[in-house]
TrEMBL record, chain A:
The keyword Lipoprotein applies. Keywords: Cell membrane, Lipoprotein, Membrane, Palmitate, Signal. Residues 1-19 form the signal peptide. InterPro entries: Bact_solute-bd_prot1, SBP. This is Carbohydrate ABC transporter substrate-binding protein. The keyword Membrane applies. It holds the Pfam family SBP_bac_1.
UniProtKB/TrEMBL annotation, chain B:
Belongs to the binding-protein-dependent transport system permease family. It comes from Streptomyces griseoviridis. It is found in: Cell membrane. InterPro entries: MetI-like, MetI-like_sf. Keywords: Cell membrane, Membrane, Transmembrane, Transmembrane helix, Transport. Its main location: membrane. One of its GO terms (biological process) is transmembrane transport. This is ABC transporter permease. The chain crosses the membrane at residues 36-62, 98-119, 131-150, 170-188, 235-257, 282-301.
């Protein structure tokens, strides 16, 4: 008995010692400078990506081959991760997380310099590139999104036309009336929540900025109540509530299917989904496979206008960065720059290019015709918003509270909308006080 | 090298008794060490993959770690205080009630089939396989299969339609219906396990007992009541313990099928969300420790209430 306890104690102590090793190794001030001579850059770099589809179908290999025409001595390897966020988060406890990677949402902005190499000064890069503010720490840029996306409604033009709607609704009330017309005149499901897939519900947070056409919308989240009367999130959440409450969404949200929703929208069985520009190409592909016309896939802004004009927020997708521990920083930087500026990745995805002088993609042609104002949100308070969000456990970038909202709207949960949104506001305010007092 | 030395010992013992004296001691030493040598690898694996994570988890539960940040602050018992002062975090245990009720069904059904199939029945082996089969399927696959099963117009609705019933019911639509459906899936999955445990126990009961009982004119129910039930008591107790701890820590099926939406969130789902959604790894570790303690307490209580007696049928 005695010997056993001693052994257990020794074992426990050894484990405790090994368990508490820190993850230091912060090379402060590390930079990944753009190489001047492409022929001189060499090395094998590993690029982590969430695009499993593009790695499997060889598209990424094609990009790498094109890259090698300029940088012949750099070998690019890809590693596609299915559950990108969760897997990379764990790997980032070591130094081995690829040479080029997408910045996971969990990393605090102020920690960027500990994990990523700087890409140079923000002021300089902002002259040519978009979204530099999203990865700015102390005047330096730490990442660059290769595409810009705009949230909006993906819709089936034919279905909307059949319902007699020819122009974009300009207010939430008008939008609801149009969905009612679709329900009355067609067999299509007016709006599809994709409740079971969860993440599509999170796109409703990206109404932020579109409603009030305010570039400071994110700052407002950090300093005020996101669900105050007239605030962007309240307008968006109320619209979602009304859609479901008035029976304009699918009959059984709990068993929806994202993959199946694409061909269904293409075939006109579903009329509308709130997603983003990135989704358009996927729905067009689904239309091609289903044998319907890809040109029927339309894209419209949030039904709100300021001074008679719609507003569309252009925001970054995942930001690409260079691992601060990478032994081939020049090669990694070369890939990052080439992929952002010259690969054509943004155009291939019908997305907004991160280059300021690049033309808008064709999906957004109707936006240009209608004079939609494009804005880019100021992200200086982005880190604070995330911190308040985590502290409050609301999760504005997570599906949970919107699932609750949908449940509330269809009567599977007790309460009313005002009480629900008011409760969120209170939790948000409490969390803000806690975060500020730290 | 050393092996040959011990092997030669008896020969030397005969030739040189004086020098051979230490050999038996060494042999005794080796005899003591050998089992540990064999245990070295499994113990190392056990330590690295079972105990090290637990020790780590307990250590994290006293910090405010977010899961990635290189900096973590020692917060003492702060996480535990927070947990205990937020009763809403324990409300999710109501959901366990559904799984607890389901495990009663699971044990009853498993016991019934184990008893029936322990007697001579036609296609006995086939039915045994059939009943055990669901347990062999991966939980993730089961989750997806049953998503289609409960879908609007899915398998369940189609089957009901065959019998002329059109309930038009969203099976995962309301908290009660969703939890009952999910608990039903878990019954489907784990009945096979209960069944196999009971069958094994029943088959270890000597056959003469049945023969003797039959000669005495006992019917099947009496045989069950007086031979089988007392004979499998330890396994029955084990099953109850397993199903209680399983109900408290239900995770994979609800997580895959609903993600905890519509009132189906269990304690483990809540913990996972704290850790990976809201990046409160410290708090989530504390929650995991609390769950561990709750399960240990429940098990201990149960062992006290139902002591594990030796089975003595003869």
């Amino acid at each position: 008995m005695h010997r056993r306890t001693v052994l257990a104690l020794a074992l426990g102590a050894a484990l405790l010692a090994s368990g508490c090793t820190g993850t230091g190794g912060s090379a402060k001030g590390a930079r990944a400078d753009a190489p001047t001579d492409p022929a001189a850059v060499s090395g094998t770099i590993k690029v982590l990506t969430q695009r499993t589809d593009l790695v499997q179908d060889g598209t990424m290999k094609k990009y790498a081959a094109a890259f090698n025409r300029t940088y012949p001595k750099v070998e690019v390897e890809f590693e596609a991760l299915t559950d990108y966020e969760a897997e990379v988060k764990i790997r980032m406890n070591t130094e081995n997380y690829g040479d080029v990677l997408l910045i996971p949402a969990v990393i605090k902005k102020n920690d960027y310099p500990k994990f990523f190499a700087s890409l140079g000064s923000t002021a300089e890069r902002a002259r040519t590139h978009r979204f530099t503010g999203f990865t700015d720490v102390g005047g330096k840029v730490y990442g660059q999104s290769p595409i810009g996306v705009t949230p909006g409604f993906v819709y089936n033009k034919k279905v909307w036309r059949r319902a007699g709607v020819t122009r974009w609704p300009t207010t939430p009330a008008e939008f609801l009336a149009d969905l009612k017309a679709i329900k009355a005149k067609t067999d299509a499901v007016p709006y599809y929540t994709n409740f079971a897939a969860q993440w599509p519900l999170t796109s409703w947070t990206y109404v932020d900025g579109s409603v009030g056409c305010d570039t400071g919308a994110t700052t407002k989240l950090a300093t005020g109540d996101p669900w105050a009367s007239g605030a962007d999130l309240r307008v968006g959440d109320t619209l979602l509530y009304d859609i479901v409450h008035q029976g304009l969404a699918e009959k059984d949200p709990t068993t929806t299917n994202w993959e199946a929703s694409k061909p269904r929208l293409a075939k006109g069985e579903i009329a509308t989904q709130w997603l983003g520009t990135w989704a358009v190409i996927q729905f067009q592909d689904a239309a091609r496979q289903a044998g319907t016309d890809p040109a029927d896939i339309g894209f419209m802004p949030f039904p709100a206008q300021v001074d008679g004009k719609f507003c569309a927020v252009v925001g970054p997708d995942y930001n690409q960065a260079v691992n601060v521990h990478s032994p081939h920083k020049a090669a990694a930087r070369a890939w990052l720059d080439w992929f952002t500026d010259r690969s054509g990745y943004a155009a291939d995805n019908l997305a907004v290019s991160p280059l300021k002088d690049a033309p808008l993609p064709t999906v957004l042609k109707p936006y240009e015709d209608q004079g939609v104002t494009f804005i880019e949100l100021d992200d200086t308070e982005g880190a604070a918003v995330k911190e308040i969000d985590d502290q409050s456990e609301i999760g504005i970038y997570k599906p949970d509270y919107r699932q609750d909202l949908v449940d509330l709207a269809r009567g599977a949960r007790k309460g009313d909308l005002d009480g629900f949104l008011g409760g969120l506001g209170e939790r948000w305010a409490d969390a803000r006080r806690t975060v500020e007092s730290r | 090298m050393t092996d040959t030395a011990t092997g030669e010992a008896p020969a030397r013992l005969a030739a040189e008794p004086a020098r051979a004296a230490p050999a038996p001691r060494r042999a005794r030493l080796w005899r003591g060490v050998t089992p540990w040598l064999f245990l070295l690898v499994p113990l190392a694996l056990l330590a690295v993959f079972t105990y090290a994570p637990i020790v780590n988890m307990v250590a994290y539960s006293f910090t405010d770690w977010d899961g990635v940040s290189p900096e973590l602050r020692w917060t003492g018992t702060g996480n535990y205080t927070e947990l205990l002062t937020r009763p809403e975090l324990f409300e999710v245990f109501f959901v366990s009630g559904y799984y607890l009720a389901a495990s009663v069904v699971q044990i009853a059904v498993g016991l019934y089939f184990a008893t029936v199939l322990s007697f001579d029945v036609r296609f006995r082996t086939f039915f045994k396989g059939l009943l055990f089969f669901p347990y062999l399927i991966n939980g993730v696959a089961i989750g997806f299969v049953f998503l289609y099963f409960f879908q609007d117009g899915g398998t369940l609705d189609s089957v009901l339609a065959l019998f002329g019933r059109h309930p038009d019911h969203a099976w995962l639509g309301t908290p009660v219906s969703a939890n009952v459906s999910l608990a039903g899936v878990s019954v489907w999955r784990y009945t096979g396990l209960s069944f196999v445990l009971f069958l094994g126990a029943i088959q270890s009961i000597p056959g003469e007992l049945y023969e003797a009982a039959e000669l005495d004119g006992a019917n099947r129910w009496q045989q069950f009541r007086h031979i089988i039930a007392p004979g499998i008591r330890p396994v029955l107790t084990l099953s109850v313990i397993l199903s209680i701890s399983g109900s408290l820590s239900a995770f994979d099926i609800p997580y895959i099928m609903t993600g905890g939406a519509t009132g189906t969130e269990t304690f483990v789902i809540q913990t996972v969300k704290l850790a990976f959604q809201f990046n409160k790894t410290g708090l989530a570790s504390a929650a995991a420790v609390v769950l561990l303690l709750i399960i240990l307490a429940v098990t201990w209580l149960q062992r006290r209430l139902v002591p594990d007696d030796r089975v003595d049928l003869v």
